[in-house]
Amino acid sequence: MSVYPGRGVHGQVVEAIGRSIVTGQEAPGSTLDLDALEITYDVSKTVVREALKVLAAKGLVDARPKRGTFVRPRSEWSLLDPDLLRWQFEAPEGAQMLDDLYEVRIIVEPAGARLAAARRTDEDVALLTATLGAIDDTSGAKEIVEADLAFHRQLLEASHNELLIRMEYIIEIGLRARDLLVHAEGHQDDFLPPHQAVLDAVRDADADGAERAMRELLEQAAKDEQEIKNRGRR
């Protein structure tokens, strides 16, 4: 089993079974053998049953008399659950998920940047400035990924819209997967300018400029991602 920090043996079983379902190793409609799971993961029946309860709450499995525990159709999964989002980006169709993420981001984040420009506080600006200020020519991919995640999270928080802020959980998981791919491929140099353009517009309370800068940032990010995909097909 892979390590599942902070969640113990129970969490590790949730992680292992959940990933096996989402990545297609356990197909929708297939029956899960609880005795086999107990042996495979070297845990008690109680741990297996508790793990399956968690997965049932996420819409992945169900149990019926005479049929046992089975994998539910993908249409019934809680696809916005943080764990499911993470597992989906690890699945074979993860590339399609990145495309879906872009469509969500291009709808949400320019509007979020517009609101941030209209509502940001001095503290919001200071946080965004510090995040970008921590990046320089010596920063590696890891530092850039963390700064990117922090910047987009802080920008949504600067919108001061509670529901919009919750979108960060959807965006951040996919953004991490996307960033690890893109920045590891040598796109560090083009990180700061588009982000700085968004920050400048937010600082200046320029709602139109913030929305436009964010849209341009996302469009460039999509081009970088497509370039890497094309390179992988050659």
UniProtKB/TrEMBL annotation:
Q: Which InterPro entries match?
A: GntR_C, TF_FadR/GntR_C, Tscrpt_reg_HTH_GntR, WH-like_DNA-bd_sf, WH_DNA-bd_sf
What is the protein's species of origin? Planotetraspora thailandica
Domain HTH gntR-type: from-to ranges = 7-74
* Gene3D superfamilies reported in the protein's UniProt record: GntR ligand-binding domain-like, Winged helix-like DNA-binding domain superfamily/Winged helix DNA-binding domain
Q: What UniProt keywords are attached to this protein's entry?
A: DNA-binding, Transcription, Transcription regulation
Please indicate which superkingdom the organism of origin belongs to: Bacteria
What is the name of the protein in this document? Answer: GntR family transcriptional regulator
What's one GO MF term for it? DNA-binding transcription factor activity
Show the SMART domains listed in the entry: FCD, HTH_GNTR
List the PANTHER family hit by this protein, alphabetically: GNTR FAMILY REGULATORY PROTEIN, TRANSCRIPTIONAL REGULATOR, GNTR FAMILY
**Which CDD domains did the record assign?**
WHTH_GntR
Q: Mind telling me which Pfam families this protein's record contains?
A: FCD (PF07729), GntR (PF00392)
Q: What PROSITE patterns would the database entry show?
A: HTH_GNTR
